[in-house]
Design brief:
The complex is a heterodimer of chains A (112) and B (112). Chain A is mainly beta and 112 residues long. Chain A has no helices and 11 strands. Chain B has 112 residues and is mainly beta. In chain B, 0% of the residues lie in helices and 54% in strands. Chain B contains no helices and 11 strands. In chain B, strands 2, 4, 5, 9, 10 and 11 form a 6-stranded mixed sheet that branches. The mean pLDDT of chain B is 90. Classes of the chains: A mainly beta (112), B mainly beta (112). At the A-B interface, strand 4, strand 5, strand 9 and strand 10 of A face strand 4, strand 9 and strand 10 of B.
Amino acid sequence: EPEVTQTPSHQVTQMGQEVILRCVPISNHLYFYWYRQILGQKVEFLVSFYNNEISEKSEIFDDQFSVERPDGSNFTLKIRSTKLEDSAMYFCASSSPQETQYFGPGTRLLVL
Amino acid sequence: GEDVEQSLFLSVREGDSSVINCTYTDSSSTYLYWYKQEPGAGLQLLTYIFSNMDMKQDQRLTVLLNKKDKHLSLRIADTQTGDSAIYFCAEGIMNRDDKIIFGKGTRLHILP
């Protein structure tokens, strides 16, 4: 069964450093998403992406964040200058039109 | 605005039925979801229900939807130790690239 994959599974970084989280969505999906889950809290929507542009973004998704689909298979989330409060589990998801979103296993980011 | 509420904890004896309840606010939601998250793991889609349905059954899982009261429940029959996890209620429209709104999750604890 096709699945969404994410790399790395864990990332530790120093405050102020840039990180790039990578996702490979399911191959025939057209819509891509990033969510995050701070430890012990709910899963929060960050951004959706379709046709090579952002469709919707939340208040969390400020200028420090950016997304990109650099090639036909990868979907990345970049945090330009990480803060302590960016520590969270980041989930990528993808979907086809009128179908549910499939989530990846997540990347646990720890900012020190 | 959009919001999903659910109780934070539930303890159930092994072999009994577990019922996890959820309320949501967005009447335009067309899909209601239940996700399972085991410790340190990603989000597993358990089941979802269209908003024009009252009930959906899938093996040990029964989802009941009261659209008038915006109340959703998940019943797990014959609860097993492997059911111990956090269960997230979520709502979405599944229209193009619409985001999914999650509740805070209910931690299900199984008593021997």
